[in-house]
From TrEMBL:
Name used for this protein in its record: Acetyl-coenzyme A synthetase
Family: Belongs to the ATP-dependent AMP-binding enzyme family.
Catalytic activity: (E)-4-coumarate + ATP + H(+) = (E)-4-coumaroyl-AMP + diphosphate; (E)-4-coumarate + ATP + CoA = (E)-4-coumaroyl-CoA + AMP + diphosphate; (E)-4-coumaroyl-AMP + CoA = (E)-4-coumaroyl-CoA + AMP + H(+)
Lineage: Eukaryota, Viridiplantae, Streptophyta, Embryophyta, Tracheophyta
GO BP terms: acetyl-CoA biosynthetic process from acetate; phenylpropanoid metabolic process
Region feature Disordered, mapped onto this chain: 1-18
Domain (AMP-dependent synthetase/ligase) ranges: 129-517
Record's keyword terms, sorted: ATP-binding, Ligase, Nucleotide-binding
Organism from which the protein derives: Rhynchospora pubera
Domain AMP-binding enzyme C-terminal per the UniProt entry, residue ranges: 579-657
Length: 695
């Protein structure tokens, strides 16, 4: 896929002692403000918070960190012993790894040979510990006043019924199950039911289009698809079953047929009678699942048996099926959850992410429930019926830990403080941020206004691939710097390397890599181990390459600066530029397309597409709309380009490679920073593009 020479932003980086300054300039491009002064800006934890925190000082963190990197096997074994294992691991074989491609096949194994089950640990174990009557899931519907809840004991019943149904229809250990559900309680229930019987779930975010869903169905060939008929999100109704129907038609054309489409009836959005139905294939959840017994034996699985597949974007058009296994993922998500949010059993935890993304896997479902936490699941849109909805929910459930994305913080910040101040929010204790770098002004608003300057912010840097948090400020342990994810989690050894793959020490900037495996690491890309090695382990031999740029300041704090590959981060959603390009060129009137990310005030990055039309086709507003619609239909609404820039030609090298560096400068209107254009096959193209910039 990409080699170091393809990595972008190289030109913006320097490895001299003033490197941090250079990276700040890069940040300024991404975040729209300078970080120059932020490096010295410390926000101290309040002594009260630190005193009762799980990790109350930097010294305590450092001691634990040291142990975790000097003896990872010992460190993680002690932690693993707190969970239930049907069979223990061999103490001499806690971790086997090779992440150095020059030493052969890349391979990561933790606790192999041990047997456990994550559903047992997330549900049954909490009941055995006497917490059967504790609320596991609070559910808040799209409309205020619409709600529900399940205790751990009730959750177990619901999970077992679905698990029994799945077994009865022939879903066995190792089989794939596609889940295409909105944020109903049935979504975590479905994940846990699969885990209970050893089936491998693949949740597809319910904002993906039929074509994207079909692509995933074709790749993992599930026995069954679980969905619901429709959902309300804000004022809109989304007809999910129709999307599934077209996806199944599409996959059948590719010789992948799915026998059963289990459909949850969501009466607040759509009546059963109005739902299109294919007899013999479609089954109403409510007609079958409640008839099954509420007890279901556990399938004990190997720690290295697959738990789930989650497709994510890369730098080619084809999404990657990131594969996570059971044991290491379980202890890693649970432990990171506990420390990142200073979790206490009395907490009420709300993460606004959808279970269709990794954040919803690790920090709506597994991490919190394995800790026995009460989790809030919210179906609706955070600005519906108005911009105060989040704080209304916080007060209603007395939420103590609130975890969200910078894009939401920025959009609510724009609505003004009044919507926040209308609510008390005094239950809040810890705030969290994920998905993209949080710019210091959004950080401050989140801290001062939402958290009343009382709640530490856990700015968690991690990825679908890492399974759990990698770099984050453990709250209460040390002073924070607004905009910095601060320090690595236990067992995580970050390395900043230069373009030759040489690790650089001290204050510097470059490419963020990780030196050793950690229990939550992904083990392969489904069906494509070679792509796994090429994308992540070949660019810098001996390291896992994250795809992110990063700098380390004089105090050792890490500052993430955004992707350095052809992936853009729109509202915290990862989108491959190649995916959007391939959607655009599928339009009959599009000859060629090049997509770049451009700074966006609310979304972090917006999608900016240069489009060359087929010879003789005139530009028109209608065509622009139809191009955007094509992307919505092929990927999903969240990937719709913000701007279509007509391009009579694209800047290419003589060997035909598109010079994205130049396109990025044109997109951000940094026209005096175009650099050397003399190597272009046709330098005149640049002037043509500039002339059409505002057409
Ligand atoms: C970005 C989401 C800075 C980063 C969990 C990463 C962040 C990509 C942060 C992964 C953060 C995520 N600060 N950047 N706190 N969190 N990112 O796979 O570029 O959807 O590589 O996982 O999001 O996105 P993914």
């Amino acid at each position: 896929e990409l080699g170091p020479s393809d990595l972008r932003h190289v030109e913006s980086m320097s490895h001299t002692p003033s490197g941090a300054g250079k990276i700040n300039k890069l940040n300024a491009v991404i975040l729209g403000e300078s970080l120059a002064s932020e490096e010295n800006d410390l926000v101290m934890p309040s002594p009260g918070f630190s005193q009762s925190a799980l990790i109350s000082s930097q010294e305590q963190y450092e001691k634990m960190y040291k142990k975790s990197v000097e003896d990872p096997a010992g460190f993680w074994s002690v932690i693993a012993s707190e969970f239930y294992w049907e069979e223990k691991w061999n103490p001499n074989e806690v971790c086997k790894e090779n992440i150095d491609v020059t030493n052969g096949r890349v391979n990561i194994e933790w606790f192999k040979g041990a047997k456990t089950n994550i559903c047992y640990n997330a549900v049954d174990r909490n009941i055995s510990a006497g917490n059967g009557d504790k609320v596991a899931i609070y559910w808040e519907g799209n409309e205020p006043g619409q709600d529900g809840q399940l205790t751990f004991a009730q959750l177990l019943d619901r999970v077992c019924q679905l698990a029994n149904y799945l077994k009865q229809v022939g879903v066995n250990k190792g089989d794939a199950v596609i889940i295409y559900l909105p944020m109903l309680m049935e979504l975590p229930i479905a994940m846990l039911a699969c885990a209970r019987i050893g089936a491998v779930h693949s949740v597809v975010f319910a904002g993906f289009s039929a074509e994207s869903l079909a692509q995933r169905i074709i790749d993992c060939k599930p026995k069954i698809v679980i969905t619901c008929n429709a959902v309300r999100r804000g004022p809109k109704v989304i007809f999910l079953k129709d999307i599934v129907d077209s996806a199944l038609t599409e996959s059948a054309k590719n010789n992948v047929s799915v026998d059963i489409c289990l459909t949850y009836e969501n009466p607040s959005a759509m009546k059963r009678e109005e739902t299109k139905w294919q007899d013999g294939r479609d089954v109403w959840w409510q007609d079958v699942v409640p008839n099954f017994p509420t007890k279901c034996d556990i399938e004990w699985v190997d720690a290295e048996d697959p738990l789930f597949l989650l497709y994510t974007s890369g730098s080619t058009g084809k999404p990657k099926g990131v594969l996570h296994t059971t044991g290491g993922y379980m202890i890693y998500t649970a432990t990171t959850f506990k420390y990142a949010f200073d979790y206490k059993p009395s907490d009420i935890y709300w993460c606004t992410a959808d279970c269709g993304w990794i954040t919803g896997h690790s920090y709506v479902t597994y991490g919190p429930l394995v800790n026995g936490a009460s989790v809030l699941v919210f179906e609706g849109a955070p600005n519906y019926p108005d911009a105060g909805r989040c704080w209304d929910i916080v007060d209603k459930y007395k939420v103590t830990i609130f975890y969200t994305a910078p894009t939401l913080v920025r959009s609510l910040m724009r609505e003004g403080d009044e919507f926040v101040k209308r609510y008390s929010r005094k239950s809040l204790r810890v705030l969290g941020s994920v998905g993209e770098p949080i710019n210091p002004s959004a950080w401050r608003w989140f801290f001062n206004v939402v958290g009343d300057s009382r709640c530490p912010i856990s700015d968690t840097w991690w990825q679908t691939e890492t399974g759990g948090f990698m770099i984050l400020p453990i709250p209460g342990a040390w002073p924070q710097k607004p905009g910095s994810a601060t320090f690595p989690f236990f067992g995580v050894q970050p390395a900043i390397v230069d373009e030759k793959g040489k690790e650089i020490e001290g204050e510097c900037s470059g490419y963020l890599c990780i030196k050793k495996s950690w229990p939550g690491a992904f083990r392969t890309l489904y069906g494509d181990h070679e792509r796994y090695e090429t994308t992540y382990f070949k660019p810098f031999a001996g390291y896992y390459f994250t795809g992110d740029g990063c700098s380390r300041d004089k105090d050792g704090y890490y500052w993430l600066t955004g992707r350095v590959d052809d992936v853009i981060n729109v509202s915290g959603h990862r989108i491959g530029t190649a995916e959007v390009e391939s959607a655009l060129v599928s339009h009959p009137q599009c000859a060629e397309a090049a997509v770049v990310g451009v700074e966006h005030e609310v979304k972090g990055q917006g999608i900016y597409a240069f489009v060359t039309l087929v010879e003789g086709v005139p530009y028109s507003e209608e065509l622009r709309k139809s191009l955007i619609l094509t992307v919505r239909n092929q990927i999903g609404a969240f990937a719709a380009p913000d701007k279509i820039h007509w391009a009579p030609g694209l800047p290419k090298t003589r060997s035909g490679k598109i010079m994205r560096r130049i396109l990025r400068k044109i997109a951000s209107r940094q026209l005096n920073e175009l650099g050397d254009t003399s190597t272009l096959a046709d330098p005149g193209v640049v002037d043509q593009l500039i002339a059409l910039a505002d057409c």
